[in-house]
Design a protein that fits this description.
five-stranded antiparallel beta sheet; 49% helix; six-stranded mixed beta sheet; 20 helices; Rossmann fold; 764 residues; alpha/beta; MutS, DNA mismatch repair protein, Chain A, domain 3
């Protein structure tokens, strides 16, 4: 069945945007309504529980979740996984443990989601083993194996030896070289020799420069060293492959469990995506009922802008198997038709509907014949196509089906169309089918008025504004307002007068009286709605003013009470200490003057501390603060409960509130020459890009000493990407420092693998 005309695929597209990884997105986009009561009941219960989770504890964490089907299938077939694939498996395992912990700790009813969460088989041991060998930056660690560690130690020694020999050679033969730096050609270190001297050393030639004036030469003294480095690199690659193979073998036994868990997590994520959709649209899941009645209270089409959508209540009782909706063009008849069909489809898919209350029966099928230009995806139907659909519907619809017909009998001669429409409705009514149809035909209105089992409804039209309100009116037949609309578009009055005369002549007196009555009923209903709306607005305004007044008085009392408590405490503390000083001065054994001075300083500092601590309770984004440990000043960027994100010299730091004091905003100062750099001015980062290892390491060592003297909590060393030799040398130096808590490669916004963030041990 094609649900495009009801915009069902567009609903799925919106929901898919709330999923957290690709598999759950695919699951949502392929979601089809099911006409099975047990399945529908289970799906709606699961979505409802997910909405409760969202409301109370938030969404289920899907950190690091991605489709790892391919790596798992490769592992099950004894295919060795790459470094990135192994890390994906490790992250997935951590994600499973996190999701299961979230479920277990949440104090939420878990009856229907329980079987999904409890079926998850996590294995954190595998994740731990992988993480021992591979860093978050996908670098195989030295600790992965003793062999790898040994290879890399020898490799670093070989690099160092090669660098020494290269520098010595270049120094000794500087006159024959065209550049004072070495180069890499074909993964081997070479020197740039003047072309005229290229045969002076022997060795291997690796090509010429673009100008032809220089030649890349690998001198004999570097041949063995380059070979040694190349062999060690090859050994390293082989050892890494062996480690990856070993880890892949560990994954093989749990591959099937993880594949099942992957499907389960996609399903769980799909329920939370549906729940998120319901939360955003203030929706609720439908309730299935036994009889054929439909009830959607304050139903809102989810694809219409909330600023403009009109909420309508639809109540189709089982005693009225047929609903006829009339009214002007573009007045909302088709939208009402679509809402009824779309909400049923959403309910049969476990998707919350946008209504305050919702219940409907379990139809065995929903048949739709809608052809209009209001849908973005549906083009106008021809009369023949309309008849083809109508024929299929009449043949296959049952007493448990819902049929939606737009402009029944349209597209042909009005008299024939009216007769055909009535015949179709009678046929479907005899079969017990639930039918909702829209029409303009007067004879269909008369048909409805004569039938006790046909419910008449219309969409409201604002006579003053001369535009539809999209308000659904149950029990009232609507008018087309064709003449009124034509007048608004300045159609010649003579034409309108003639048309009205012909209308009167064509209609019976009873029909004209009926039409007049309908117009009066609609006007009365409109007036009633206006009064109710005004009354509601007045009540809302009154309630809002009352709450504002209450909130203001409460806030005022709290502020006054808090300020009084703070002042009283400060005065009391100051009085107590002042009395102690006076008592000592009055005593015969008067304390030495320096002790009294010390006490006074303590009293002043206490007052200052109270003042500063109290001011922090009202700290706001943009305020200036300083670190107690280093006296460095920064500006508040973000507040996180007891944590504050501060910008200090361009570096974002997350600091505990207890570690901060309020500071004055810095004033613009004239630049002055300072001969001695204070400890507090030690920069938060050191850039050693461009330095050789032997040049950089003393700078790094001196910078660490400065940071420690300044009692800095952390710092950043920028070493760049390069060959990785400088990074490795820096890490080796840091590893030997017992005053360093930890170090790691930079994250997003911190320089990535081109920088190392160092955290120092507390010096309090």
């Amino acid at each position: 069945m094609n649900w495009d005309v009801l915009e069902y695929p567009l609903i799925l597209e919106e929901i898919s945007r709330y999923t957290q990884f690709s598999l759950s997105r695919e699951l949502i986009l392929s979601l089809n309504p099911q006409f099975k009561p047990l399945w529908v009941t289970r799906e709606n219960h699961r979505t409802h529980e997910a909405m409760e989770f969202l409301r109370i504890v938030g969404s289920c964490p899907m950190s690091g979740m991605k489709d790892i089907t391919t790596p798992l299938e490769k592992a099950s077939k004894d295919i060795t996984l790459g470094v990135e694939e192994l890390m994906d498996v490790a992250v997935f395992g951590r994600g499973l443990a996190l999701a299961k912990s979230f479920y277990q700790k949440a104090e939420v009813k878990k009856e229907y989601l329980a079987d999904l969460f409890t079926s998850i088989q996590e294995n954190t041991r595998i994740s731990i083993e992988i993480e021992k060998c591979i860093s978050p930056s996908l670098e195989v660690l030295d600790s992965a194996s003793s062999t790898l560690k040994s290879i890399r130690q020898r490799y670093r020694k070989a690099l160092s030896d090669r660098d020494v020999v290269t520098q010595r050679f270049m120094h000794q033969n500087a006159s024959k070289l065209s550049d004072s730096i070495s180069a890499i050609r074909n993964d081997r270190v070479v020197v740039l020799v003047k072309s005229s001297e290229k045969n002076s050393f022997g060795g291997l030639i690796h090509g010429e420069s673009a100008s032809g004036l220089s030649t890349y030469v690998e001198p004999p003294v570097l041949l063995d060293l380059n070979n040694k480095v190349s062999l060690l690199l090859e050994e390293e690659k082989e050892e890494i492959i062996r480690i990856c193979k070993e880890l892949s073998q560990m994954i093989k036994p749990i591959a099937e469990d993880y594949l099942n868990a992957l499907e389960t997590m996609a399903l769980i994520d799909s329920y939370f995506a549906r729940a998120r959709f319901g939360e955003i649209h203030q929706g609720r899941v439908i309730e299935l009922i036994e009889d054929s009645s439909i009830y959607f209270k304050n139903a809102r089409h989810p694809l219409i802008d909330p600023k403009f959508v009109v909420a309508n209540t639809y109540h189709l009782e089982s005693s009225h198997p047929i609903l006829l909706i009339t009214g002007p063009n573009t007045g909302g008849k088709t939208v009402s038709l679509k809402i009824l069909g779309l909400f049923c489809l959403m309910g049969y898919s476990g998707i919350p509907v946008c209504a305050d209350e919702a219940h409907c029966p379990m139809f065995d099928q929903i048949f739709v014949d809608i052809g209009d230009d209001q849908s973005i995806v549906q083009s106008l139907s021809t009369f023949s196509a309309h008849l083809s659909k109508l024929s299929t519907i009449c043949d296959h619809a049952t007493s448990k089906s819902l049929v939606l017909l737009d402009e029944l009998g349209g597209g042909t001669d009005p008299q024939e169309g009216e007769s055909l429409a009535i015949a179709v409705l009678d046929f479907l009514k005899e079969k017990g089918v639930k039918v909702v149809a829209t029409t303009h035909y007067s004879k269909l209105k008369e048909y409805a008025l004569k039938s006790n089992d046909v419910l008449m409804a219309s969409v409201q039209f604002d006579m003053e504004a001369m535009k539809p309100t999209f308000k659904y009116l149950e029990g009232i037949a609507g008018q087309s307002y064709a003449f009124e609309i034509a007048a608004r578009f300045n159609l010649n009055p003579r034409i309108l007068e003639k048309a009205n005369q012909l209308k009167i002549e064509a209609k019976s007196e009873q029909a004209l009286l009926q039409e007049k009555l309908e117009r009066k009923m609609i006007e009365l209903k409109q007036f009633e709605d206006t009064l109710l709306s005004q009354e509601s607005e007045l009540n809302e305004l009154r309630e809002k003013l009352y709450k504002q007044e209450e909130e203001f008085n409460r806030d005022k009392e709290n502020r006054l009470s808090k300020a009084k408590e703070e002042i009283d405490a400060l005065i009391e503390a100051a009085q107590e200490e002042a009395q102690e000083i006076l008592d000592e001065m009055r005593a015969h054994k008067q304390a030495p003057i320096h002790e009294l001075i010390t006490k006074k300083q303590h009293l002043d500092s206490k007052r200052l501390k109270v003042k500063e601590d109290v001011s922090l309770e009202n700290i706001e984004v943009g305020d200036w603060v300083k670190l107690k440990s280093t006296n460095q000043q920064g500006q508040v960027l973000q507040l996180k409960k007891k944590q504050v994100v501060v910008n200090i010299n361009g570096i974002r730091m997350e600091v505990s509130l207890s570690q901060l004091l309020r500071a004055e905003a810095p004033k613009a100062q004239k630049q002055v020459s300072i001969k001695h750099e204070s400890i507090a001015s030690v920069p938060l980062e050191l850039n050693v890009i461009g330095y050789r290892v032997e040049e950089a390491l003393p700078l790094v060592s001196r910078y660490i000493d400065d940071c420690l003297r300044a009692k800095m909590p952390f710092a950043r060393i920028i070493h760049g990407h390069g060959t990785g030799a400088l990074r490795q040398a820096v890490h080796t130096l840091l590893a030997k420092q017992d005053r360093i808590e930890s170090y790691r490669l930079g994250g997003q916004g911190e320089g990535g693998v081109g920088a190392t963030v160092v955290t120092f041990k507390s010096q309090l």
